[in-house]
User: Fold these one by one.
Assistant:
Number 1:
Amino acid sequence: MHPWTKHEYASFCVPIADCGNKEGNNSERKADSMSSNLELYVKNGCPWCHKVLSFMGANDIELPLHNIDESEADREHLIEVGGKRQVPCLLIDGKALYESSDIIDYLKEHVVEGEAQEAAPAEEPAAAAGAHCTLDGHCSF
């Protein structure tokens, strides 16, 4: 099994209410749902989605996740609201932010309290099945 399968996403939070705090980090870091409504759209096997999810895990960031491989409604909503067939996508109060590095920069600036922890480097990612993944940080479907 490839390391970026849907089973890996299970280690990250899906609905915010189901997430517990991770131990081992001195500061509690969560999205402030009062100031912004944040939702992350991802796809199984997408190395750029994995990059964002790894950063979120390293910084105890809990957001609602929408896996477009597992929900036709989420896939359609992403295209309708975001206007692109591209992941990862962070919806911020209904506005789309693409590109994994831009998403991480946003999370560092607006969500992480204190100094951000970098995610551990992963092995070289493979392209997502049924998608076009590019070096500029996105996968289209």
Number 2:
Amino acid sequence: MKRILLSTLASLLAFAINAAEIPMTVSLFDGKTFQGWDGDTNKTWRIEDGAFVGGSLKTTVPENQFIATTRSFTNFVLKVKFKLTGTEGFINGGVQIRSVRTTNPPNEMSGYQVDLGDPEWWGCIYDESRRNKVMAKSDMNEINKVLKRQDWNEYVIRAEGKRIRASINGVQTVDYTEPDDAIPQHGRIGLQVHGGGKTEAWYKDIMIVQLP
């Protein structure tokens, strides 16, 4: 009996340890409120049909705007469903990771952006308001096979150490390793609607798994 009891306890302990080692998926957006996020929720961002919606199809978005987590993250797997629509001008958005808000101008974020938009921004990593250039370019021939323009798609973004990988609808778009030791590898997550167009950027089902 003692052996059975000890064996059972050992099994339960092993299960508990293994369960503790499995990263948990956490929702960053409840689909109803801006809890855990900040941004221009008076004019730019609203919640509609369980999604963050930035911008307008009736008037031109005057400048870049971001809704961002109040928390910072380092290593993670982030899943975001997105839809980008527009009728005129520059139609673009993006998912910021390991980023910070800037003070001048106050509407910008600085950091890595996993981009959205035609003609060739989908799936790229752009260094927003910092180096201001594409750090990793995607293959549009592959993306065009799975991308659903004007409809819902899904980004999966994996950030581990200095390596960042992204995929759209299961197709990897970039695999980038940061060569500069001075670039921070932690920060906030942000969602962008780009200025300069009559456009709406929709984001929902925002889930994260934090990694060691």
Number 3:
Amino acid sequence: MDSGGKPVEFSILTSSSNADRAKMAALLQDDLKQLGMRVQVVPLEFRSLLDRVTQTKEYDACVMGMASFDADPNSDINVWLSSGGMHWWNPRKRPPPLPGKRKSIV
């Protein structure tokens, strides 16, 4: 139950063409069921999955992979920064103020 006393229910999207990720989503579903949560695994064709995650943002959770073969984390800065174009959780987040650049309240 959530803080309002309602059952916790949500869906996890995953690619229908990736058996390993579908298994991961099923494992999550089973683990969360033990905590009393109802989770529906939704396998989608990869292009549909990408559209939901990157365009419509109509999803609760998603199991997918992002591969980078560069040891330098700076090459993936667009993933890690909340304002980055590939930052898929909490999208379109405004960057935090820089130190020393805070607005004063008068």
